Amino acid sequence: MKTRKLVTAGIGLLSSMVLMLSPLAVFADTTTNNSQLVNSGNNVTSNSTTNTSTNVNVSNNNTANIIQSVAASTNTGGNTSNSNIGGGSVNTGSANVGVTLNATANRNVTAVTGLDPTSTNNTDVVNTGNSVNANSTTNTSTNVNVSNSNMAKVEQSVLGTANTGNNTANKNIGGGSVNSGMANLNTTMNTDVNHNDTFVGGSGGSNSLTNNTSVTNTGDHTNTNSTINSDTDVSVNNSNMAMITQMLMGNVNSGGNAANKNIGGGSVNSGMANLGATMNVSGNSNLTGLDLSSVDPMLTNNMDTVNTGNHVATNNTVNSEMDVTTSNGNSFSLGQLLFSFVSSGHNYANNNIGGGSTTTGGSNSGTTFSTSSNLNATVFGGVGSFVLTMLGLI
């Protein structure tokens, strides 16, 4: 009786990234059982049995709680140049806020290969008397259980302010002018959580179970039994839960400027005000590849009974059973929120002697939301190296 067991368990709790990589389990097994009975008397019994058992249990459990929060403010505005003789001017530089938040968590990669043992059971009974019992049995059992469970809670928030405005050049003799620079706020939030990649299969070799039974030159009452039993059970269970919130509150301003009550004229030129927001979410995918073409063995049961007496009974039996179960469950909750105020206006050039002018820059807001979630892909058959390559394991 040969028994092989692989048991792995992984539990991760991490606030930024969780990756579980189960062993690339490879089994290679060749079993040969040879039995010979030559030139014996009466009442001969020959029992030849080969038992092979493979049990693989892989359990991965991940929990990720991620909070990413940023409060950023840039300001070059709020300047004054008032009540000057000879003129007054305000020129502000640009105000820029750039924020990128990335959250990656909970990926399980499991590969179990080499589930293709070869077993040969040879029994030879030659030149015996009466009452011969020759029994040859090969039993093989393969059990693979893979369980992946992920739970991810992600909160990403940005509070951003970019200001170059709210400047004044008032009550100047000689003129007053305000030139505000550009105000920019750009944010990117990326979340990628909960992926399970599982491969179960053989190594591409020959998987065969062979019984060779030969009974030659025996007396009366010969009973010959040759049996092969093959049982394969594969179970893959994947479960994902993701709760994700992405929020941006942005205030971008290059306006609110004033050049009033100047002698010599007043002018306001406000810069551009730009807000760009990108929110990307990817989560909950289960990719399962089952290459069971080489796991399901080739069964060969050969029996030769030659030159026997009376009352001969021969029984040649092959039993093969394969059970495959895959289960994928995903739960996905997402909130993507944007609150923004973008302005280059509210500028004033009033009550000036010599004229007044206001020129406002562009005011732009661009937002991109993208979501990819809850993908289950299960492939049966001779996918072999294709799946391993796709999983990045070879």
Write a structural description.
The chain has one domain. Helix content is 2%, strand content 70%. The chain has one helix and 18 strands. Strands 1-4-8-12-16 form a five-stranded parallel β-sheet, with no helix packed on it. A five-stranded parallel β-sheet has the order 2-6-10-14-18, with helices on one face. A four-stranded parallel β-sheet has the order 3-7-11-15, with no helix packed on it. It starts with a strand and ends with a helix. 40% of the residues are buried.
Spatial shape: rod-shaped
First CA to last CA: what distance?
Answer: 33 Å
Indicate the mean pLDDT.
82
Strand content: over 45%
Query: Widest sheet: strand order?
Result: 1-4-8-12-16
Low-confidence stretches are 1-28
How many strand units?
A: 18
Structural class: mainly beta
Number of domains: 1
Percent helix: under 10%
Order of helices and strands: EEEEEEEEEEEEEEEEEEH
Using only CA atoms, what is the Rg? 39 Å
Number of H/I helices: 1
The main pleated sheet reads as:
5 strands, parallel
List key phrases describing it:
394 residues, mainly beta, 5-stranded parallel beta sheet, 18 strands, disordered N terminus
